[in-house]
Amino acid sequence: MRSHKRYTNQTFTKRVDHEAGRHHAPAAMPEPAVCTVCGDVYADRRWSQPDAERQSAKHPEFRPAHEVVCPACKRRQSGVPSGYVHLGGAFLTAHRDEIERLLDNEAGRAAEDNPLARIMDWKKEKAGKLTVTTTTEHLAQRLGHALEKAFDGEVRYDFSHENKLAHVWWQRD
Question: Residue 75: which of 140, 157, 133 has the closest Cα?
């Protein structure tokens, strides 16, 4: 029987991740766990940076940590980024050191909230352009906001609905 409804839930439902969760682990990791590459800690179903105060306090349910590789290090090893920040313009060539320092500091602040958000690579291209790849699409967006706030310029954000990928273009002449 055909429905006479103008709109259905199927009309508005979009499948965002066509890779069927390939970036997620098939099951929850055993806790506690420590990344063998970067040293981040997985406890209480959350990744966090190692904290001296947390390590010195012994918990009554102390268990030795499992050694694993965190999702950010896996993404870095595979070389498949989730975010791109493309920078260009005459202002970039004149203030490259300041801009790189800003991006690096902003990535450090983002790592306090989410240690899996990291800069993967800095690619210096011809004609004075720069492309920064990130492990999360949110970090790419955050870097674009930081550039716009600090140096003005034109920013454009593009998000893929097929997979979790963001492109941010920033330019100032």
Answer: 133
